[in-house]
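Predicting holo structure, magnesium ion bound.
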Amino acid sequence: MSDAPGATAGGSEHARVLDDAQRNAVAVPQLPAGMSLAQAYAVQHELIALRVARGERVVGTKLGFTSKAKMAQMGVSEIIVGQLTDATRIEAGGVALARFIHPRIEPEVAFRLARDVDPDDPDADVATAVDAIAPALEIIDSRYRDFRFDLPSVVADNTSAAAFVVGDWVGLDGDVRTMADYDVELLVDGTVAERGSTADILGHPAAALHELTVMAARYGFSLTAGQVILAGAATAAAPFAAGRAEARVHGLGSVTVRGI
Ligand code: OOG
Ligand code: MG
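Done. Tokens:
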């Protein structure tokens, strides 16, 4: 990459390396040190553009590191944003482990965007534009060796996004900001592996949705009607292996995926 501050030259090469790493399920070294966050988001956009050029469609947005448990597990303490494509949405119950490098699974709460949000509008807030919530699971799979990365590297790697499953939507009665706290559990083969609460997501997921609005303006994300938004895991992630993983959001529902 170029040494010029703010330059994104060479980003395409980083995007291609990360794209190949995902497609071949082979880990690569982290990006060279010194990349800015703006450059890292530019690489992420190029990476997604490669996938869109192959026919994938962006269907949502995800936040990462919105809970202390996740920040502590990965040693990163800044909120990050990534993109979800239709090719990574698992509709059926099973997913082949062979498509991943070293997958982990985490419980999520999904939010459905009811209308387009213009991030450049100072009054816009995703938290006021959501009409349904659902229990969800996210499979993360860093394309970097040993699942280790610094902040720009994980941003460029589309925040480790690899696959996601959304359970049944429940219509929101009013504003998401008044949503109650829900206890969240991650079960692996029927045993509770991690426990938390939606209150662990920046105090309340509405705060995460507000943060998404700010970051969408800063780093150029589109927020369009129908998108799925993952607010970030309330708990640490667990290894995803052959067997059954389940997210239980008490009072909302549960969703299951099977690694095969
Ligand atoms: C990055 C993705 C973080 C979350 O919910 O916090 C994330 C990683 O942990 O590899 O998706
Ligand atoms: Mg996540």
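The chain has a mean pLDDT of 94.
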